[in-house]
Design brief:
single chain; mainly beta; eight-stranded parallel sheet; about 180 residues
């Protein structure tokens, strides 16, 4: 544990992990073995859940789930992985997340996927295994991406990508032929 690293109650940290300066593992989150959290990584912050009220205000929806990060993952500096509303936000074995990435509540990222800096993944999105995602990619919520997909930097993914091992670019993202 580096200076200022914090682990909240009921969390589990696997063997041989390194938690960087000011990194946080929130309540009831699970970190597998041999994982690295870089400076300021936050695991298990509340997801962005608010319900509109009749008076035009918004009431916070309790975020009761957790985050599960499997073995051999690396989470970059100032990257946030939000806890699930219910259930778990899941990061698969061997995933590598660069700096300043936002992973929203109830997202699932398959094993050995790599994601470059400043990518934002909206809630309940599922990204397959062995994907390569460039920097500053934006994902709409409630979509899925097949295994082995490559997405070019600064693309906007607005719908599910069903073709495995395909390459996409642009906004809205379209297949590269």
């Amino acid at each position: 544990l580096a200076p200022g690293a914090m682990v909240d109650e009921n969390s589990e940290i696997g063997a041989n992990c390194a938690l960087g300066i000011r990194s946080v593992v929130g309540k009831s989150c699970i970190l597998g073995a041999r994982c690295i959290l870089q400076v300021g990584a936050t695991i298990g912050a509340d997801g962005f859940g608010f319900a509109p009220q009749s008076n035009a205000s918004f009431a916070k929806i309790p975020q009761l789930g957790n985050v599960v990060i499997e073995d051999h993952c690396e989470i970059g500096a100032a990257t946030t992985v939000d806890r699930a509303t219910l259930g778990s936000t899941r990061i698969g074995q061997g995933v590598k997340l660069d700096n300043q990435i936002q992973v929203a509540h109830n997202v699932s990222i398959g094993q050995n996927t790599v994601i470059a800096a400043q990518t934002g993944i909206a809630g309940s999105t599922s990204i397959g295994a062995n994907c390569m995602i460039g920097g500053q990619v934006g994902f709409a919520g409630h979509i899925s991406v097949a295994d082995g997909v490559k997405i070019a930097a600064q693309s906007g993914v607005t719908k599910s990508i069903k073709e495995s091992n395909s390459t996409w670019q642009g906004t809205p993202a379209s297949p590269l032929r």
